[in-house]
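Exercise 7b. Backbone tokens:
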């Protein structure tokens, strides 16, 4: 059974990790989750958002295991840390629900903030009719939902070190693969491997974030600008829409 330790005051919703930067924006305290593999060869640390952040390899590892076994240990530790994070998140959600029920309070999901004027380009000209825009948006969202699973599966970040003798692959759910190959691996101490693996993991996370950011949005900015043009017109003259429908 992998040994785990979790230090987290404000866990995120279970099941995924968010790109770096969200923690600071939300004002939450940074916390970490760590776990060892079952043979205590490697330990993986997740940051406050569940993103892989560091790898520690014990000194003298080469006397206990080969490179392939160490790679498997790193992957096992990463998965154990992700499970520990999810368990902690679910427990915190359950505790919060119990506290709210005990206090007799009801909660509602806060409304999403209105789009900032600077986030979507202003539309110039006459926008297309709302029913036409709605049909386009529905078609776009339907296509996006069908492609989302494939996009997520294709979004893999990679990082390497030691002239690619160390390679790490990361997906939205965490570390997906670790490869250690080459003549220098067995001659590298645990301290050095810890530094190299940590660098590779962080490079893989950054690569994944770039790939996710490059994915095409479900609805284009131009379409949103046309819809917002209608909304601004309704705000300025609420009777105009009713007049258009008569």
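Sequence design result:
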């Amino acid at each position: 059974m992998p040994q785990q330790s979790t230090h987290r005051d404000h866990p995120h919703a279970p099941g995924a990790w968010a790109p770096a930067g969200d923690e600071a924006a939300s004002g939450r305290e940074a916390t970490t989750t760590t776990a060892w593999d079952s043979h205590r060869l490697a330990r993986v640390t997740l940051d406050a958002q569940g993103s892989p952040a560091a790898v520690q390899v014990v000194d003298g590892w080469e006397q206990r295991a080969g490179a392939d076994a160490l790679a498997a240990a790193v992957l096992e530790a990463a998965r154990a840390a992700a499970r520990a994070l999810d368990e902690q998140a679910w427990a915190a959600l359950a505790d919060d629900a119990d506290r709210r029920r005990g206090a007799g309070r009801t909660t509602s999901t806060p409304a999403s903030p209105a789009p900032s004027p600077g986030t979507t380009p202003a539309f110039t000209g006459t926008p297309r009719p709302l029913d036409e825009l709605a049909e386009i948006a529905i078609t776009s969202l339907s296509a996006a939902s069908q492609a989302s699973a494939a996009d997520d599966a294709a979004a893999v970040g990679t990082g390497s070190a030691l002239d690619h003798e160390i390679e790490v692959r990361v997906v939205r759910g965490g570390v997906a693969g670790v490869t250690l190959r080459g003549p220098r691996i067995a001659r590298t101490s645990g301290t050095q491997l810890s530094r190299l693996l940590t660098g590779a993991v962080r490079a893989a996370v950054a690569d994944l974030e770039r790939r996710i950011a490059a994915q095409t949005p479900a609805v284009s900015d131009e379409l949103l600008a046309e819809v917002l043009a209608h909304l601004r017109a309704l705000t300025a003259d609420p009777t105009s829409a009713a007049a258009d429908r008569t």
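Instructor comment: Strands lie at 4-7, 32-36, 42-46, 52-57, 157-161, 166-171, 174-180. The longest helix spans residues 67-103.
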